[in-house]
Recover the amino acids of this structure.
């Protein structure tokens, strides 16, 4: 490096017009290829095991020091990667709670990556798009003007942020400066059905699982309000500071929603932070017909939800909303002077998104939300949310009608838990595995009151009622097969 | 909802063949549009202020309940968003430390969003792609086989995770279960030049800023090793448990790299966790010529870096590597049974990425890394890293030659801090603002030893030496202009 290189400087862009034309042509081929894939997804199996040779290549190929070119890399993708996904884009995928994505969302991701801003909050359009999306979200969730928020990588980060704001706002000592050792022990309350993000967040936040009070649930898997009240009183008596109640809109096991209005009342009476994990359930609030079951959600101090689940957007994008913008700012703001020095130009003004998250650099995940909302309209998304609930009820009704099937829980929303009747847990698990392996459908499973259940979580905009019948048919047929093998 | 809808079920996919053809055609138009944008980026200004009408639309348009169609949404993007980014894709953008992105990375993002897997770690190809990328990264960073890791939204999350693993591994009490209140106070050491992520992480982790010991730096902005040693001894004497030393490979102010080998020795001697923030600097390790300055990096217990900076990939993607895979697992694993129940099918086997992060659902950000590496080769990326350093030295030499300019710090890597000589801080700031506002170039600024400096951070694969001359020319011309206005 003593001498400057004399040769032309390099770039990762194509070297000349011909190179640009070639890459652009490849891009058009890719676009057609991925459109073919999405458009034809119904015709293929939901899931298929990766063949050994693809697996071997992904396990054994060394660092690619020399490039093979974009066309060859794309061929590898088409051969070894694209066909062997988890299957969540398929109309008969209802495993865990996943999103199916849309072609509009996919195109927006291409545009976002081509424009490629760092949405840390500069004086630029991408920052304004994210802020607009947050405003729209706040309005849709019934939260007041001035609500602050952020798009995140997903629900767990959104939940973590909401909880961190609540901790700072309600701890009554300087958590950021002095740390947890300087104050009394803190307590957070959530039902036993609360998603595992809460334990993980409390661990990371240094509070430990000891700071979690797991409250029992009623027969509908909803938090017992009386039990929370008692726990708060006992904690106060013991010198533990009650900090926050976490309500859930749509539990992961059965789709239950806590009595959010009752929790809001309790938080108001006791001076606690009210955080809601609405990972998928929160979007039901957009529907006038479904909203009554979520009354009180709009009273959250902080609300976390995903858009890559029931918002039908490609991974990843979640959102946190915080009612008190100043409390939010106070919990994260650092006042990094190098970002604030300028009165004009790209560093002037702007919203310091980095003051709302542990992150600094941020991708333009707002664009896919913005374009999807504008292109398809929020009403069409809401109609599909309603349709997913109707389909879940349709499946539940079918299960209830079939002598060989039985429901394992109530169906308050879009989740259906059921079993092949008269089969053991192991046999029901075997039935589920065959349904998955044969590429018919991918539900997942859960355990309710100690018993295994096949679990259908429907956040899929491609599903039709016939797809749920196909699942029921398959479980019956394979159930007979598995039980028949018993002898 | 008492009755099932009789009409055809809806979807967010196009309704029929004609609809698919129309959307696909729009996709091709978008692809051409964004290719035109990227290919022509050099011809436009680096940054331009958003016009009032675009700003107004983004500030005032309400929730789009009815959709306007994808074509109209795209027109809005082209009109109001695309031209008014922060400018980081432009060859004369060197503000903060940002990435410029590549067209191959952009196409990979489209494919990732079209396939749309949830890379939580199932029995699928996307999980294997991410694991392969992590293996490649470990090898490139000189870390041993068996090193664990994760792709993250960026360096701050990667750093947070590394620190959290270190805390769990070295705290000598059960942080996850019992929380910080159950053990002695902990201390983390980093230089005064350590990036602000560290304070933010300690705050979130409940340790408070009080747990940070900020160590002084020498004239080259490198951590004073003797001072760390003394601080550790004093802390031990005071009953504080030394936990971790954070070394930096490439500080944000000047590009300095701590004496990583000396820190590694010290950590080994004292039993401390050795974490390195290599947000951009770590990638210099890939170059044989630059590597000597980073000797010791391969000895890190955990190493965090970005690929959307010096890896030239679109936002967002960072990486954390952890040498001791078991320590990593122990710090985050939850053993969520609903993910592990199956012996076959999509939930069998797999790597539980969710056990390496506070997150659960995860996007397919691995694909752009994998395709970029395969298509362009790691060696070409490394050559561009070297070129960026050469260009920084070229600018530094030009600054040193010009009577009207002066260097504000040494140039150990790819950052150049300089001033218009004989101008005040306010005047230098005015010069920078005019350079930015006129769309000539976007450097950012910093303060070194109490004085304002224009700061060029070069992680841009599109820059040429002529671009740095254009900046120097502009600073001289505008410097004369600003100083001339003094009278």
């Amino acid at each position: 490096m003593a001498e400057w290189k004399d040769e032309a400087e390099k770039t990762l862009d194509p070297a000349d017009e011909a190179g640009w034309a070639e890459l652009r042509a490849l891009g058009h081929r890719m676009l057609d290829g991925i459109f073919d894939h999405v458009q034809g997804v119904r015709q293929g199996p939901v899931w298929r095991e990766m063949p050994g040779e693809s697996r071997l290549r992904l396990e054994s190929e060394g660092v690619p020091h020399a490039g093979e070119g974009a066309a060859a890399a794309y061929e590898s993708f088409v051969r070894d990667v694209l066909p062997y996904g988890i299957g969540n884009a398929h109309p008969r995928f209802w495993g865990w709670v996943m999103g199916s994505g849309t072609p509009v969302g996919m195109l927006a991701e291409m545009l976002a990556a081509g424009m490629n801003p760092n949405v840390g909050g500069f004086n630029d359009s991408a920052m304004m798009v994210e802020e607009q999306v947050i405003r729209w979200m706040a309005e849709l969730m019934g939260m007041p003007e001035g609500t602050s928020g952020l798009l995140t990588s997903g629900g767990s980060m959104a939940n973590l942020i909401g909880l961190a704001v609540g901790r700072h706002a309600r701890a009554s000592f300087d958590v950021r400066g002095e740390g947890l050792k300087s104050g009394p022990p803190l307590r957070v309350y959530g039902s036993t059905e609360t998603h595992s993000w809460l334990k993980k967040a409390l661990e990371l936040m240094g509070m430990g699982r000891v700071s979690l009070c797991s409250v029992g649930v009623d027969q509908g898997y909803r938090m017992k309000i009386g039990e929370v009240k008692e726990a708060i009183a006992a904690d106060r008596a013991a010198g533990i500071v009650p900090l926050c109640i976490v309500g859930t809109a749509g539990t992961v096991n059965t789709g239950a929603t806590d009595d959010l209005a009752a929790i809001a009342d309790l938080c108001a009476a006791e001076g606690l932070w009210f955080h809601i994990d609405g990972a998928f359930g929160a979007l039901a609030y957009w529907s006038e017909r479904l909203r009554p079951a979520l009354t009180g959600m709009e009273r959250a101090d902080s609300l976390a939800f995903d858009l890559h689940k029931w918002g039908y957007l490609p991974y990843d994008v979640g959102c946190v909303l915080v009612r008190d913008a100043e409390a939010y700012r106070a919990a994260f703001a650092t006042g990094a002077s190098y970002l604030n020095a300028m009165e004009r130009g790209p560093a002037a003004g702007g919203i310091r998104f980095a003051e709302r998250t542990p992150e600094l650099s941020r991708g333009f995940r707002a664009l896919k939300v913005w374009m999807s909302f504008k292109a398809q309209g929020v009403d069409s998304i809401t109609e599909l949310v309603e349709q997913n609930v109707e389909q879940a009820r349709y499946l539940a009704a079918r299960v209830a009608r079939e002598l060989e099937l039985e429901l394992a829980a109530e169906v308050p929303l879009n989740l259906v838990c059921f079993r092949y009747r008269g089969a053991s847990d192991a046999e029901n698990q075997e039935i589920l595995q065959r349904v998955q392996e044969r590429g018919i459908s991918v539900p997942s499973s859960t355990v309710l009151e100690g018993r295994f259940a096949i679990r259908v979580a429907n956040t899929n905009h491609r599903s039709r009622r016939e797809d749920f019948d196909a699942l029921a048919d398959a479980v019956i047929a394979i159930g007979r097969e598995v039980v028949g093998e018993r002898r």
Notes: Chain B has a mean pLDDT of 95. Residues 191 and 214 of chain B are 5 Å apart (CA to CA). Residues 117-363 of chain B form a domain with the Aspartate Aminotransferase; domain 2 fold (CATH 3.40.640.10).
